[in-house]
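To whoever picks this up:

The parser on our side crashed when reading a file containing two proteins. I've narrowed it down to the boundary between the first structure block and the second sequence. Both blocks are reproduced below exactly, byte for byte. First block:
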Amino acid sequence: MTSDPRPQPYVTAFGPDFTFAFDDWITNPAGLGEVPAESHGRTVGIIGAGISGVICAYELMKMGLRPVVFESGQFGGRLRSQSFEGTTNAIAELGGMRFPLSSTAFYHYVDMLGIETRPFPNPLTKAAGSTVIDLAGETLYAETIDDLPPLFREVGAAYQQALEDHAQFGALQAAIKARDAALVKELWNPIAQAWDDRSFYDFIASSDAFKKLSFRHREVFGQVGFGTGGWDSDFPNSMLEILRVNLLGLDDDQHYMVGGVEQVPRGLWTRSPDKMVHWPEGMTLEKLHGGSTRPGVVKVRKQGDDGPFEVTDRWGRVERFDALISTCQSWLMTTSMDFEERLLAQDMWMALDRTRYMQSSKTFVMVDRPFWRDRDPETGREVMSVTLTDRMTRGTYLFEDGPNAPAVMCLTYSWMSDALKMEPLPVEKRVDLALDALRKIYPKVDITQHIIGNPITVSWESDENFLGAFKGALPGHYRYNYRMYGHFEQSRMPPEQRGLFLAGDGISWTPAWVEGAVQTALNAVWGVMTHLGGHSHPSNPGPGDAYAEHGPVDLGG
């Protein structure tokens, strides 16, 4: 139920690393596949009740298998929506909050659940209304890019030129949209080879387009960036990750979920599938689990090479499973769980432990109404705007549900070192620091007189179940991602390593975006299905069937 039409053709579900159309696979009337009748009711343990784990459970239940989900923290993972006291639509989105319409596999489930979405108020969008950019003490007000000084347009043009000069951006994006797998591979594979060892900042600083400009241009690009705002916290990351964001439209046409994105995993938990085998009509994951998930996992073992997995939860209960899916943050498999080492190859443990996670902090307050829509009588401008700044707040976002209804301010959304500045502070101090920074930008606006209720905050790096917000691959990490992402195709693995599958956005090619979590979940579903003797429908081959031909390039080593 989006208020804007979907872009055509869809992008994210196809390439560039794995040129497979996930949206076609999950919407095909033939279904994802089937397991033989003798496998119906066989058990699959799933570690983690985030969107990846819940989708795995939902799709496997449809096939007649018995998923059992373990969760050590909060249901929903990083799709975490917290309501302010006494409200339903005043929501603090503590994790994922903006979802590009190109994320077609994710939106398959959003639409199935009938969740309403609206355009996200990103800087310089119609949904934002107005934007303020405050850099080096200079405050600029804009409703479109044309309202900003020429320097900002020069920065934008330089980045687009750099993409074209060094990544064949136009040709590659056209090939992805056309789903021309052969051309995508022809264009992308050499780029993966060339840019695996080079950072985002290297791409900017070494490009011919930016060499013609000043350091100030690069500095402004870091603070303001493209689409959702500043990207300097990603400057150390592999340029390949940023290229995927641009190529797949992940920073474009973003929406938010009215009532909170946590409705998606919770909706799947309580929804009875339209088509389901083995289980009685009306069966849901909630009913299958007796009302709640299992507690967190502390130990994983396997009986012999081909025997069941033994999973011990935090209360000492041991259950046995015919297959196992781990969707948790990768470090947890060596820090908070006693995972039998032989279940993964040593180079896989290397990849999981070397995965690098980025810090992130958000602080929200509820206000009595969207007062920012008031007009300054002297300037005629809105009194406050979506704000990008080099001050501690970095990004401030404004959400409303009507002119007289309570509204929500994300006072500060920051990453990496800016997030670490907040990490040791209590929520009240975080609010005070954010308000102090915003006072310098809006000296005539008293935000405090509008605040109602208690503030809400999160620092993902201090949560023992996450240890960070999302993966941010460094230069040289492509090979790690190659190992993790392709692990679901297990035909060449030794017997003791088969039957354990990995999923979640941290092993995807698009970390920090929910589409990566959804696609790796679907990979794991295919893996479990084939491991238990099943197969895709001949007319609807799955990701494992297509992997040899359409999988990512192997850089060796």
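<<boundary where parser fails>>
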Amino acid sequence: MATRLTAEELKQISTFRRRSVFFCFVTIILFLLLASRFFYLQILEYDNFIIKAEANRKTETAHPPRRGIIMDKNGELLAANEPIYTLEITPGKVVGLAKTIEALEKIIPITKYDKKRFYRLKDELPRLSPVPLKSNLTDEDVARFIAQAWKFPGVEVRSRMHRYYPQGKDAAHVVGYIGRISQRDQAALEKSGKEAEYSGTLNIGKLGLEQSYEDVLHGKPGIEELEVRASGRPIRSLSKSPATSGSNLILSLDMGLQREITKVLDGRRGAIVAIEPATGDVLAFVSNPSFDPNLFVDGIDQETWDELNNDEDKPLLNRALRGAYPIGSTIKPFLALSAAQLGVRDPNRVIQDRGTFQLGNHTFRDSTHGRGYGPVDMKRSIVVSSDVYYYSLAQDMGIDKIHDSLAPFGFGQITGIDLKGEVRGILPSKEWKEKRFKRKWLTGDTISVGIGQGYNAFTMLQLAHAVATLANDGVVMKPHLVKKIENPTTGEEEYVAREPVGKIPFKPEYLKLVKSAMHEVTKKGTGRSTFAGAPYEVAGKTGTAQVLGIKQGEKYDKNKIRERHRDHSLFIAFAPYDKPVIALAILVENGGFGAQAAAPAARKILDYYLVERLKAKEEAAQQKEEAKKEDKNKEKDKEQKTKKVQAVRKTPTKTTPETKGAQR
């Protein structure tokens, strides 16, 4: 007999059924949502997710390019690369940086300087960039680390190309150096859109040609595509594009001459620039004292930096490029030529040089202490270096004519040499003084400019460039240090600067007069004793530039003046006189009269370049020729011996009854 359900039980069953239907409905809805999500992900978004999956499966790593080398005109290396091992830490991947370094010290010797440099570079570089802790690891260092590398996640040994400078101090101000890419460098790369080209690269050109030709020297990185596990550990290489090496620079610089000039300066402060007039090739570019660029490659320590930066002799200052000086009497040939060309002064006009020049109540004196040179025309004024003649000439020309006539020579102008940071110097004018000092130009200001004093200040590069232009009969060649750019793969060469950039239209007779006067300076004038017996003909001009002014009536006495306040010694020259191959501008800081320090330096430099260097080349060529002859003779002897052996082998052997019996 069926049991009848109570009303309460029927109610519970009804509730259960309703709830079951509801949960079934919810479950179906959830499954439909899940199915639609699967459909969206697997069907509609398939293409996007397959790309992301591939990206997770693959990663790219950059291989930095080999930096181009720099060499002089004779093939001597000035900047090169060598492979080294470096211990590097990626701070973003290391937990407990200080403890990690402390543990590494037990495996590899790490100095205080290494740690100082590491923390400084760490602050400059992005968090996920590897920072070198120790460079130039030995094979033993590498072996010890690799054996325990598993203990140090985020630390690795890398093989990198290390930049080094074989010439050290001798070419530092020309070549410059590379250094770590700083945050400022990184920002500049991002702004220029070049950050991708520096993937995997740690260094960038900071000074000199390394900076000026960064785009040429750097090259392009190679990209390797790797398949990786979910943990990021590489499985295999999928594809690889090789890095493109940077191009090489072949300079116009002659390192033999560069070293000789450094030797001639003998530790004295100064700057010397030598240029080939016909081409604008810079043969030597010396600023003394100098510094070792190798100190900067891995990051210079603070102590050494402070020592260089605070040195009273300023070894970091490129005096040839950035040092602006009054050029004393070396300005006189250029003023004389300009005055003749403008018709301001007839070259044959004679004035009486009594040792003083009066302007109002002020008396301008010369170096003869009132004796003077008597009657002087334009040519003799250059030969004897008459100050009075040029006081008078400057007054006749006026400052604006002086400015306009000297500017084409490059005075007070940017020459455009391929080094960054060139200063313009000062070629004064009325407008310049009013802008600079808010005061009007006075006639007395012009008088001092006439002898290369006063407001004018020029670099030795500008002075050498002007001398080269004069020697080249007014044809202006742009001075340059890089002669050719060489593709290291194809060997193709591209010349940098070969054509004239201007021509100053001097009348030949005036040009001849001034050059002849400079020639006589070394025969009869202020440079006669220095160049007596020289086996070549040279044109030159001495110059002395005051560092401190001297009151009227006082005499210059170097023994009463602090060494750094003594006059600068200058000399300009070109040689040989008839067919110049070299033009020089020399400054010896606080060296005294031009004939005292700068002119003797010029004699030694020209002796080397025009005599000793050529003799050495001839001897080397002769030795090479003798070696070739010796090799040829050895080859002939060898051939003769070979022929004799072959002749013996070909000669038939005679048989006798005894030999026949032996053969049987």
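After patching the parser it read the second block fine. The chain has 22 helices and 23 strands. The CA atoms of residues 538 and 575 lie 5 Å apart.
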